[in-house]
Amino acid sequence: MVLMVVSINESWKIPFAYFLIASITGKEKANIIRESLCRLHAIGVRVVSLTCDGPSQNFAMVRELGADLNILNMRPYFPHPEDPTLKVHVLLDPCHMLKLLRNAFATAGVLETEDGKQIKWQYIEHLNTLQEKEGLRLGNKLRMAHIQWRKQKMKVHLAAQLFSSSVADALEYCEQELKYPQFRGCAATVQFLRTIDGAFDVLNSRNPLGKGLKAPIKPSTKDRAEAILQRAETCLRGLKVNNGKQLVHMHSTAKKTSIYGFIANGRSALNIYNDLVERPNAPCRYLLTYKLSQDHLELFFAAVRARGGYNNNPNARQFRAAYKRLLVRHQVKTGTGNCLLRDNTDILDSTPAAVNIARRMDVELNTKMLQSTTSQALL
């Protein structure tokens, strides 16, 4: 388990703790997080959010900390252990939630909206079959890898390219313009893809100069971002799936994690914006939501694996050596991974020269203190 801090108002990140463990409980994780928050607070670092993925231990952890991600009584934040007036907002990594939603959609085959319209995976399959047959693509990146997603289920870009407006536009074109019978009734699927695509774009903004849905959340875009996230929450709350006996809300089944995650992420992103941008004497002029992503940690893991060459599964000793090396000299090719480098957030580095200077200054300071102590003792 590795803990990392990522600066929201600057371009740096730094891993600050790791634990070589086989398993850990939610309560133990919560204790580690509390201790980390207290130590960071002591050196002047204000932590505004906590991002993790969706295992059950993490749900137990956030409950232990004082947050609640249950959709019926959602409170996606908890008080800071050092200052109860400050809130630490909880997010479940948007990329993981997108993959889980794709998995649930493909596995179920058919989802139903609150008003009884059907969202069908078969439309995605029909579109891919048509494009493979014709040898042309209708302005999208859909291919067989997106349909046979189980072979590469950890690849984020496959889920992001599937939940895209370009796929939605292609489906709509096939139904309304080309009049293909296999696409009849795909309007609900088109709307679903566009809704999720919009929400993910808002939760994944990384360029201060971004346009449209990829723009940062700022005073001029806040209302639009809020409307998109609210539309996604309404859509996800109403999704139903057949459990073999009857239609039930998806948020009440074992596939609820992606629903909880997207809704919590939308609320937390807006709350963080209000806290950092809209309040008096705000420290930020806008919020880049990609700063809240777990991609920064995933890329660090990719760099650790790259240190081992062909061995991408390091043991404890190899991990510790790579960890130390990356802290001192971080310009290492990331190699393969489940996510791609999207911004220029570097590890807050300490070059060998800086380390040597710090050591020399520390030695000189200790020598002077020793000489002063000796002089006082002689006096």
Mind explaining what this structure looks like?
- The chain is mostly helical and 379 residues long.
- It has a domain at 95-254.
- Helices cover 49% and strands 10% of the residues.
- It contains 13 helices and 10 strands.
- The chain has helices spanning 26-42, 56-65, 94-108, 122-134, 144-147, 156-162, 165-176, 187-202, 222-238, 257-278, 295-306, 316-328, 352-378, and strands at 2-6, 12-18, 49-52, 77-79, 87-92, 110-112, 118-120, 240-242, 247-249, 346-347.
- A 3-stranded mixed beta sheet has the order 1-2-10, with no helix packed on it. A 3-stranded mixed beta sheet has the order 3-5-4, sandwiched between helices. It has a two-stranded antiparallel ribbon with strand order 6-7.
- Strand 8 and strand 9 form a beta hairpin.
- Helix 1 (26-42) crosses helix 2 (56-65).
- The N and C termini lie far apart (53 Å).
- The model is unreliable at 351-355 and 365-379 (pLDDT under 50).
Which tags fit this structure?
mainly alpha, 49% helix, disordered C terminus, 13 helices, three-stranded mixed beta sheet, 379 residues
